[in-house]
Amino acid sequence: MARGETYQAAAAALDEDTREYLSEDEGEDFSFPDFQEDWGNVIVVDNLPKIPLGKYDKLLGVLKRIFAQTGTISAIEMPAENEVTLGVAFVEFETAEEAQKAIRLTDGYALDKSHVFKVNSFEEAKRLGSLQEQYTPPQKPEFVPRLNPSSWLGDPMHRDQFAIRYNNETEIKWCERAGPPTLEYGGEREKEGGLYWCEQYVKWSPQGSMLATFHNKGIALWGDSDFNKQGRFAHNGVKRLDFSPGENYMITANDHSGDKRGVVVWDLRTRRELRTFEVASLPVPPPILPAGEDPGPVRYEPAHFKWSHDDSYVARRGKDKNGSDIVSIYELPSMALLGKRSLRADGVREFHWSPAANKLAFWSPEADNTPARVTLVEMPSRKELRQKNITSVTDIKLFWHPQGKYLCIKVITHTKSRKTLFHSFELLRVDEALVPIESLKMKDAAHAFAWEPNGHRFGVVHGDGIKPSVSFYSMLNKAGDPELTLLHTLEQKQCNSLHWSPQGQHCILAGTGDAFNGILEFYDVDSKAGRIVEHYRCNSIEWDPSGRIVATAVMQPLEGAFFKYQMDNGFKLWTFQGKQYHETSYENFYQFTWRPRPSSLLDAAQRKAVVKNLRKYERKFAHEDKQKDLARIREATTEKRATRKALRDLIKLRSQNYAAGSAARMRMRNGVDADADDLYVISTRTIESVVRTKEEVVN
Fold first, then answer.
1. pTM for this structure?
2. If you average pLDDT over residues 565-581, what whole number do you get?
3. Measured distance CA(278)–CA(262) in Å, rounded
4. d(CA 51, CA 43)
């Protein structure tokens, strides 16, 4: 008998069985309340081990420990037959919300290699049990074409896009060659509904397929050629967004310390939550100061997640129950802890995934008699590939080569008094056997380091004076063998950062901040030629994905009510040789970001063929550029041509009217034709004036 039927039978039998227990004031109107049959707080866990009843309590304890992390358990039942469980359990929670959370977090949980949980709601299990044994194919739905997230890549003019935030506006624009950008979309649909397209910042996905807009209540994703809404992700107060490199997942965070739902991991394909985390705040390491100086109060910062290159893992720093430092690594899409345990890393300060392999590099400071160390670990095996011990360490920074071929360790060490600092670099050849290390000792302070994105070179800004030097090195010698080689050094440069072109070879030596106020040198590392320009108060420099255009900008923080250099807000566009061709100013300018392009699908042979036929492509693109320039000139002169035509038409009309009145004028002048040519003397004079002079010395 069903649960509801049993209840109704009990209600019908009230007169016979319980009448004698009722008080007189309850009378004949007493009845059971209406039965509410709701199984929303019950889940069904399948694929459990089938065990004898003697081990029932042990497995029950394991299930309680697992599901107690998702909510308050009311009961757990595992049915059995012939003294052996059936491999399924019914778990009842206090609320339906806890049951849904348990389904989301434990479906796919691996108890061991042979038993992976399959978790459903009770209603879903009931529906599955009612399916017919004979399969009936569903009706084929009408085909709906899928929106193309990469439609912008088919632009016939091969242009790049960028997004800007200014005032209350958010705009997507096409970058034109040698001309002002053209608007693609500026949130017109949202404006018609009285809404802002974006309330805070925007962020492109790593391959440029989607644009994320930040709102007070969460994140919205936009895509395809018309920037239609692709999804909404509710997360109050969201401040950070990190897409996975393959655009399969993303993480949102509000950075509210202690918030149980402060960090959310999303599956972008299903638009559902995979797991939530509490925002964990870790102490910021105090600066190394001379003995006796007070470092000030301890500061804290949120611990952020970082993605592996292939979306397989996501990791963050933290502490275990005993307070020890760890790196917790989670597998996707199950979001289960890799190997059911975190990576032990005592004192870990910083870690980074390789951009090309599942390798993790992290460093830990000195502790007691143990030197500071940098460790390179392979995942998921946790095999230690290399370790470097360093003593008297003030600070360490890690820089992966964009192609994952090298790892640079920037080291700052100190003397016993901590008043003198020394700078050096440890360079690991990650792809070679045993991961050999080469050392580069600097004679002065190193201020900036940057790898060439697709080569073997890197640049270092170093020096103790007002005008530092810039040195370029290669990880290969002239013969192409692995050997650290100094290429050349530029002395007395006004810069404090390096910005390589995505295609390599070209680099911007940038001097930003109060010390240099926006001095930029567009430098060709191969030809050793440069061009110095200035963008006053520039605080942002971005190359477009093609390496042809550079955007420099003066931007203010969105949260700030007052910005000291607001008069200079705006952006400029430059060619890679350093020639400015466009400038736009705004009263309030918050963000400029290029739309990324996905990695090329061409292999090495195909790329070589493109380079071989580059002249043919150059002629084609030069012709297209010429036609576009002519169209721009024609458009610019349209108004002039219209004004000239209107003037000529007016002169022609006036001449015709004047000629029509010739007979009337002669009558009024007693037959004299005042317009006759023989009444006038025509003389011609030539006046010469010097416009400019130029002198050339000819040998």
1. 0.76
2. 91
3. 5
4. 20
